[in-house]
Amino acid sequence: MKNEFTLAFNEVLEEKQLPKEVIIKALESAMVSAYRKAVNASGAQHIEAKIDVETGKVTILAEKEVVETVQDPHTEVSLEEARKIDPNVEIGQTIIVDSTPKDFGRVAAQTARQVIQQRIRDAERQMQLDYYQKQLGEIVSGIVQAVTPQGLTIGLELRAEGTMPRKEMIPGERFRVHDRVRALVAEVKDTPRGPQIILSRTHKNFLRRLLETEVPEIYHGIVEIRSIAREPGERAKVAVSATQPGVDPVGACVGIRGVRIQAIVRELHDEKIDVIEWNPDPAVFIAKALSPARVTGVYLDEKNPNGKTATVVVPEDQLSLAIGRDGQNARLAARLTGWRIDIKSLTEAAADALHRLQKDPAYAPLAEQLADQIPQIEDMLARKAEGRPLTPEEYDTLTRFVDRVERRVTLGAPAVAAKPIESDKLAEIKAQIPPDAFETNILDSGLPEHVAYILQEAGYTTVGEMAVQMKVRPEEIFRLNGIGPRAMQEINKLMARLEERMRELEAQPETQIEATPTPEVEMVTEEPPVMEAVASTPEIEMSLEPEPITEAPVEAAPATSEEEHEEEEISFDQLFSLKSDIFTKVVLDEDEEEEEEITTRSKGKKKAKKKKKPVALEYDPDRDQVVIRKKHKREDEDWDEWEL
Fold this sequence. Notes:
Blueprint (H helix, E strand, L loop, with lengths): L3 H13 L3 H20 L7 E5 L6 E10 L8 E3 H7 L8 E5 L5 H8 L1 H22 L4 E10 L2 E5 L5 E5 L14 E12 L2 E7 L3 H11 L1 H4 L3 E9 L3 E8 L6 H6 L4 H9 L4 E6 L4 H8 L7 E5 L7 E6 L4 H5 L4 H10 L2 E6 H14 L4 H6 L4 H12 L6 H20 L11 H9 L17 H9 L5 H10 L1 H5 L6 H31 L1 H20 L1 H6 L17 H9 L2 H31 L12 E6 L4 E9 L5 E5 L1
Parallel strand pairs: 2-3, 7-9, 11-12, 14-15
Antiparallel strand pairs: 1-2, 2-4, 5-6, 5-8, 6-7, 8-9, 10-11, 13-14, 16-17, 17-18
Helix pairs in contact: 2-4, 2-5, 6-9, 10-12, 13-15, 13-16
């Protein structure tokens, strides 16, 4: 049966949740302190305590000097007693002997109680400090123990207490005693009164850890959180990207019907969360960060003395949406991207661009290029200032105008000259490009218009210059503002066409030397006879023209004056009979064609019969022609004649 000491020892272990070795060490240290106090031992004397956990027996071992005659039993031991422990000991040496007092159990219990409690308390605090330092930046859960004007006191694991100041609480949240709270361990301090654990629900990493908890793709590294910008209780923006192809990072975070993101929104006291796909192109990333606003253009200036600045142009109806309530949307987008964002409406940006063209000498060359367009822009801005509307085409013109002026600022010097290429290597590269590419303007390259303008403003005036840069350092072109993956696909298609053209040029000399001379000579010699033959045969010309029905019998050949005279002498009856045969045949042919069409439409049905309209042929003396007269019956009237 276990004694009282063992039961008490196990109870302390369970209550304090401390390791067994820590409790034993604390008890031994307390026994040593109690012995020193009981016998008034010197601090220089080495004293040890041993505790048997099973029996609860305490043994004190003290270092004593071996002497012949003992004067102080607390520091000296006789040679006879010493040799019982070590037979080789001599006088003057020191030896550790058992010095446990007879009534030490009762004395130790009274004297060492405070020391034991303090030692256990120190060990407990040290364990709490070590544990929560490892939990720094992680979410912990606790119970509210007290609510004060300064904040909350929250009970945590290992009998630790955390504090949540008011500034670390989400505005509008109200907690009561015994409520369960989840918070981020923001800071851990070691103080004389124990570890001070600062909890936070407003830290941006609190949102990061919640996303990792709710979205398995983030926890496993398939989706990565790039940056977070947050205004607690109001709104937050999260930029995410996929580390594996074929994964939709935004859809993974939102979940089916928004289940995943709604759980986080409820935890954050209905805080709105915008999940945005991260993009390596800063211009595209900034445009997405300003969602839900629609952006017309983003122009970057990394050399601005105030820091990296992005000028964002938006339509007038999107300006307030891009800025947000009290500038919240623009603030969060700036924090998310790390750029200073200057938002302008389209008309404001056009007015600024026009002012720079007219006043800034650095824009003089561009002003000359846009001299024809400047009056048109001034007229549009004047009408807009008067409150008159502009057409969508005029808004597109303003957009292109602002784009050209702004890109003149951001791109600056040609990118080809940024990193010089060795002359030998440059000659080899040019030999791989068709010569006519260096004479083709970049605007005539077949690329999309906006891509061609970006390349032209960057200094690539011809297709050949652009092709050289693509073969040496294509990343320089990809870095240009406005050149994204789709634009690079178009440029790569153009490079493929240039390579195919180069292969044709390389194969051309072998095939053309033998084949080309003879056809050219034959063409020159054969052309004149062909032209003469065409000119000398009028029958060919006439046969190409449609034959009019009324002139059918007269079209055989050009008539001479004698034949015309014979035709005049033909009697009217002969002429009528001649014309009747011809026209009757034509009408019948037309009827047959119509019947065939009807049969085709019916798809195998019984052949439909078509009523023949009454037709009469008469000679018109005024026109000197035979005409067809068809009789048509009108409603409530007799048969009338109708002339075709």
